[in-house]
Amino acid sequence: MSLGLTACKENAPPKTEPAASAPAPVAAAPAASHGKFEVPPGQLDDYYSISSGGHSGEVRIYGVPSGREIKRIPVFNIDPMVGWGITNESKAIIGTKPDGSLKYKTGDTHHVHGSYTDGTYDGKYVWVNDKLHGRVARIRCDTFECDKITELPNIQGQHGLFTDKRDPVDQSINHTTRVFAGAEFHIPLPNDGRDVNSPEKYGCLFTCLDADSMEVKWQCHVDGNMDLVATSYDGKLAASNQYNTENGVHYEDMMSAERDACVFFNIARIEEAVKAGKFVTIGDLKVPVVDGRAKANADPKTALTCYVPVPKNPHGVNVSPDGKYFVCSGKLSPTATVIATELVEKWFDGEGKEPRDCVVGEPEIGLGPLHTAFDNKGNAYTTLFLDSMIVKWNVDAAIKSFAGDKNAKVVLDRIDVHYQPGHGYTSMGETKEADGRFFNSGNKFSKDRFLPVGPLHCETEQLIDITSDKMVLISDHTAYPEPHDAIIVARNKIKTRQIYDMDEFPHAVKDPKSQTITRNGKKVTIQLASQAPAYSMREFTVKQGDEVTIILTNHDKVEDLTHGFGIPKYDICFIVNPQQTASVTFKADKPGVFWCYCTHFCHALHLEMRSRLIVEKA
Amino acid sequence: MSLGLTACKENAPPKTEPAASAPAPVAAAPAASHGKFEVPPGQLDDYYSISSGGHSGEVRIYGVPSGREIKRIPVFNIDPMVGWGITNESKAIIGTKPDGSLKYKTGDTHHVHGSYTDGTYDGKYVWVNDKLHGRVARIRCDTFECDKITELPNIQGQHGLFTDKRDPVDQSINHTTRVFAGAEFHIPLPNDGRDVNSPEKYGCLFTCLDADSMEVKWQCHVDGNMDLVATSYDGKLAASNQYNTENGVHYEDMMSAERDACVFFNIARIEEAVKAGKFVTIGDLKVPVVDGRAKANADPKTALTCYVPVPKNPHGVNVSPDGKYFVCSGKLSPTATVIATELVEKWFDGEGKEPRDCVVGEPEIGLGPLHTAFDNKGNAYTTLFLDSMIVKWNVDAAIKSFAGDKNAKVVLDRIDVHYQPGHGYTSMGETKEADGRFFNSGNKFSKDRFLPVGPLHCETEQLIDITSDKMVLISDHTAYPEPHDAIIVARNKIKTRQIYDMDEFPHAVKDPKSQTITRNGKKVTIQLASQAPAYSMREFTVKQGDEVTIILTNHDKVEDLTHGFGIPKYDICFIVNPQQTASVTFKADKPGVFWCYCTHFCHALHLEMRSRLIVEKA
Fold first, then answer.
1. Residues A177-197: tens digit of each pLDDT
2. Distance set, CA A395 to CA A238, A319, A347, A439, B197 (Å)
3. Best label site of A35, B4, B123, B359, fewest CB within 10 Å?
4. In chain A, positions 435-494, which contact chain B (CB-CB < 8 Å)?
5. What pTM was estimated for this model as a whole?
């Protein structure tokens, strides 16, 4: 008898044959020098890509150029890994119904934008929209956790979102103090059952939140449905591209007009109007709502808004890093529209004629243009959804061409992407520090780019080197559906914390040996601590019918020495990171023995890390 | 005025300076030739790695060697991206309370194992455990979706899981028909409030499920807490390594004995005993429970179980690809224990003396050995949690050494991993077709390997080339906490479907123009279809207080042309893939207009894809 482990296929050749079911690789990948962008083991990425996660409800952080997903940040979703939507602390942020259950378990994030100081990221916060339930969430960048969520009143379909970059009133405040949110769906005001069959009475509001308190400061009633939002570097203007300026309620009616608009908001004037009491309120709410509809804003000198016509159903508006231009993409037109910031500001000063005169370029760039990003050399990169391409074009040349220069070479390069790109964004491209290194194409269909995994495919994120004249495809990364927009932030902008501070948690269990059980009628509070590989309390007993609150503080101080706490059959699962405190409350409705255990690997004796919950039969 | 886009940092050098907060790269990465394993754009991976997701509650598919996450499969968690836990179809699989809400929203997956035919993967199913609520889930490999979940009776802490590889009774059945599950926590039997303070009456059961029906066939009462499960290639034996054979209820009592055990189950005998009525039932349940405790199984010739002593608190048991050996790791002992399958089978035949005589090797391999994987050349690779290393050792040499050969060279190589590895697994390593190409180390701590993202870090998956004498680190990949075990499956084993078959859905809305609204008292059923870029119904009206069921069939036939359906304020969000049907039911308790919209990018006019839900005030 041979005692060796000679397997039945010893010396079998490596399995490199194509799978029977795997599609054939696509012809000649255009990639070339991608190897030089590899991030080898032990090396760090140069950038954080902070990305929305669509209807997964989360936000994600990828490393660039590696494409590694370094973190998922649960925001509008429930995540048992961290206990998001399960702990009392996270439920308070998400919001609950009167019975204590979550108000929402779903959400749809599209656009992530950061806080600015002096025209570039300051690494304090990012904000993200929830299109589904009309919310805005804030994420702290020191812990990369959501700390506040605000549900916006009077709106539906909160889609576009951007921060201000400078104060519109006090120019000495050179950092973000406001967050702007554009609503896409027009609804009755208020939406309480009245006017449901009178679409002409529906409205869409643009919302301004205070970046610090996350409270709604004001809203502005506009025509049409808002899509993306962008802001000027001088703080004076916010803008949103719009479709359905027809205010149609059926699909077919939403694209009858030849032109829609990019609407500009004069923030200082809106805030003056609010201060002067020139607003209404809707229903029982106190939020001031100013009238920004075109008819009420015909006189430029008093107008709160300026509707710059652009080809119909535009998708996306982005600002060039020098602050000079807003670029709207055509979507149903093969063009991008370049609007000069200065001319819009002059229009508000009464120095322009028609809003359309603010357009200084409108190059034909390809089919289905959606979003535009910028390098540091005056070039724009627009995703072409229908062409499945990225087009590189020069903004200066586009402006010259629009002015009649037939020799202006507008389109400089095109590259295939795989397939149907949505958003595209460049490294630091939405700041004054755009560095022209990387462009990321967020593609909506991956088709045959990855091993087949059934009917539902992942998306493709393709990283493109934009340092030279020709764009070069570096790599394909996967993304769980459905990422939309992202920002690519240089790593030196982010300063994270490695452990928590116990004093920040008002309910912290400061005694590492705590065995505290407090009873108040049927309410029982259990205070315990974790320290690898044990909980301070080996067992605790409650009575069937008790409302039990467990408060757990992790006394470990070693970075990432996280413990979990799972309670079988009680649907409880959460973690506590080093020096963090978290709590859960549940009704002990099932008698018996329930082994609470550490769900997050912590120590060689992790499996033995348990505490016995005994629920005595009533 | 310059009209160019000359940004303020034109020609700025690429930002390669280290971030102030980013830790310094680790010294001299041991990786070398990793470049040759890069999967360039447009190329496919060679393997699927199907991985548990720990207390995220999900299962994931990574490509190997790229490390790309190609799919998340929601199982025990809620996932608004696909509508898992939201659609009626998924809620029926997860299980609901009498009020229709989900019984559980959390879970803790550890071990994924596939269906076998002739000793290798047949690509039909994988199964995964839920340690938190004692469940086993099945995932179809043609769609990579969970199709059944069974909650196991009489147990808590369902941890180890493995499929059988051949029928133990009818040897002509050479494929998987059973799934074995080992419970970790000992509880009162039944756990209904009785005996809570009498730990001596607690028990732990090993469960056998029917692979097809997912019904529980039988359970076997054992001593100790079960950890991992493994099965023999001849179908005759299942095994589980065990800790706490002391049956202690407090942490300290769980490691007093010098030796714990690997318990072997004689499946054919257990099934004979069940057939002969030699079982008990617990509480009101009808599941037959046989007595597999050591005291009741002292006579080898009738024993259902064999307890082979191994050093205390072992972690993990794995079978060599030739089927000859079960290897238990020491965890608290620096050893691996090699148990000969043949000798265990002989013990059951009465041809052995003591169970310990089945041990044929026990090499010292390093500190904190947890899990062992195999190549096709007779070598084993064990993760060393405390050493943060992988050790490569030869099984044949270990056996010779144990037999007294002082010249046997057991340990062949060691490689550092970063850091604290848990499970490790090789390409096709748990099948007869182990191919000796890749070893993946699932590391529990990533520390400084990736950009800092706050107190909670991701884990590291490190891929190692094992084709030559020296192990070579290829790459570091990230994984959202907390992956445990995985199987690495050659891509030609998997045959997925690209679209659904409409006829498989009993409620399919077959008319692509369906405008059907059916009312039965307060119950309203809306049947509609999707076809890019529109829903068949542009609007539908219900009354406040109605119970509304929406059935949506996607008539698109193009691969991956998926549509979403989100209802603002009603917490509804799900998708329908091509030719799929899904439904949701909710109470229309809020009057007003609610724009149902497509959440999953589908078409250039995706944004316009909406349907207006009008809820008339009661």
1. 999 999 999 999 999 999 999
2. 21, 12, 22, 17, 77
3. A35
4. 435, 437, 444-447, 449-458, 462, 467, 473-478, 480-482, 490-492, 494
5. 0.94
